[in-house]
Design goal:
Elements: H1 5-23, H2 27-33, H3 38-47, H4 65-76, H5 81-99, H6 102-114, E1 119-122, E2 138-142, E3 145-156, E4 163-169, E5 181-187, E6 192-197, E7 208-219, H7 231-267, E8 269-270, E9 273-274, H8 279-307, H9 313-338, H10 349-355, H11 366-381
Parallel strand pairs: 1-4
Antiparallel strand pairs: 2-3, 3-7, 4-5, 6-7, 8-9
Bound molecules: flavin-adenine dinucleotide.
Length: about 375
């Protein structure tokens, strides 16, 4: 799964160059227009990002969680939305690689790695987000097919993607409910349609959609793992990497906001000196840089454990919780440093301020995250 350090350094250097040359110049314009960055997506395919964490034997880059999280942070230092185009796709891929049958791995993973098939995960429904066992989308067996009926919402890549991992109820009467939940890989087709594109405060340019399933038939061969009743655990297993990924976004954004505030504070002058020389601004800069550094270290700690195949739900939860809050706080502090100009779309800090709160919601809200952390603390102390 892991490469030697020099190969990983080369990959990071390539990403660095791409971020500066391709991503930074278009971020403002595409975000303001809420326009999908189609050219960037093609470049992501060439960079191998759709296969970043997929094993090399299935055509992916086989990157460690540590290298992957550095890539995610680097992108989010500049613009968070493009990372979402491959992040949730890779959660789908990790569900197949960890829990899929051999035939499913051989069929789907090479197509996921090239981006020929790409999408994300469909868990949330209008009436069930944190409480996933409350979903209502039903999959009913019919010969060698399952027929899906129901609605998903807030699904990232729901419009531009062509394939999604969809969590369903195959036995709505099961008790506890998770025993009746199953995950399917669904390629778009008749009966699987987009209800509407959702408007958002931030995280623009990436599509979030309501998806409607009306008598949509999916081959029984696409039931992940080939056995009903395992979907909830399969999804929960993918969330550790998902949380490290959100944490990496937060650490990147916290650092990006700090850098913007620092450079602005060194340029902007009031009362005869740069505002970076006023103590009130210095206190903010110091707090922001400390928060960003702590977030980065927590991400590395969780990713290291993940790469050593150790249980890391506590560490991933801590990293996700702290880094997402750091991104929100640093965006707000940077707004203060920018004064009136923070309110202008001419400066990128207003985008950070709109994008960051999503990190406190996705992959388990920060309320749920703290519950996971505390439960693990008790379990480890028992
Ligand atoms: C831009 C965006 C992209 C998204 N992308 C995806 C995607 O690709 N796929 C997908 O499946 N979903 C996606 N989501 C949905 C997201 O995962 C959910 O919004 C999230 O899980 C929270 O669910 P909810 O919105 O239903 O809130 P609810 O579960 O209704 O929670 C509301 C509030 O109650 C709190 N709460 C809930 N239960 C408890 C409890 N037991 N104890 C204490 N507090 C509690 C929550 O923390 C929250 O503050 C996305 C959402 C957004 C906004």
């Amino acid at each position: 799964m892991s490469h030697d350090a020099s190969v990983e350094q080369q990959i990071l250097a390539t990403i660095d160059k791409w971020v500066e040359q391709e991503l930074r110049p278009i971020a403002c314009e595409f975000d303001q227009a809420d326009e999908y960055p189609g050219d960037l997506v093609e470049q992501m395919k060439e960079l191998g990002l759709f296969g970043a964490t997929i094993s090399e034997e299935y055509g992916g880059l086989g990157l460690s969680a540590s290298t992957y999280s550095r890539i995610v942070s680097r992108i989010c230092e500049v613009w968070m939305a493009p990372s979402g185009i491959f992040n949730s796709h890779l959660i789908m891929a990790s569900c197949v690689e960890r829990a899929g049958t051999q035939a499913q791995k051989e069929h789907f993973l090479p197509k996921f790695a090239t981006g020929e098939l790409r999408g994300g995960i469909g868990l949330t429904e209008p009436d069930a987000g944190s409480d996933l066992q409350g979903i209502r989308l039903v999959a009913k067996k019919d010969g060698d097919q399952y027929v899906l009926n129901g609605t998903k919402t807030w699904i990232s890549n729901g419009i531009k993607g062509n394939c999604l991992a969809v969590l369903t109820k195959t036995d709505p009467s099961a008790s506890p409910p998770h025993r009746g939940m199953s995950l399917f890989i669904c390629e778009k087709g008749e009966g699987f349609s987009v209800g509407k594109k959702l408007k958002k405060l931030g995280y623009r340019s990436i599509d979030s959609a309501e998806l409607i399933f009306e008598d949509f038939s999916v081959p029984a061969d696409n039931l992940v793992g080939g056995e009903e009743g395992k979907g909830f655990q399969q999804v929960a297993g993918g969330l550790e990497l998902g949380r490290i990924n959100i944490a990496a976004r937060g650490a990147g954004m916290a650092k990006g906001a700090t850098n913007m505030a620092l450079h602005y504070a060194m340029d902007r002058r009031t009362f005869g000196k740069a505002i970076a020389e006023h103590q009130a601004i210095q206190l903010k800069l110091a707090e922001m840089s400390t928060r960003a550094a702590a977030a980065e270290l927590l991400v590395h700690q969780a990713a290291d454990k993940f790469d050593r195949h150790e249980r890391c739900d506590l560490e991933a939860g801590q990293a996700k919780f702290f880094a997402s809050e750091a991104a929100v706080q640093n965006s707000l502090d940077a707004m203060r440093v920018f004064g009136g100009y923070s309110y202008s779309p001419e400066y990128e800090i207003e985008r950070f301020y709109r994008d960051a709160p999503l990190l406190c919601i996705g992959e388990g809200t920060n309320e749920i995250q703290r519950m996971i952390i505390a439960k693990q603390m008790v379990a480890r102390a028992t």
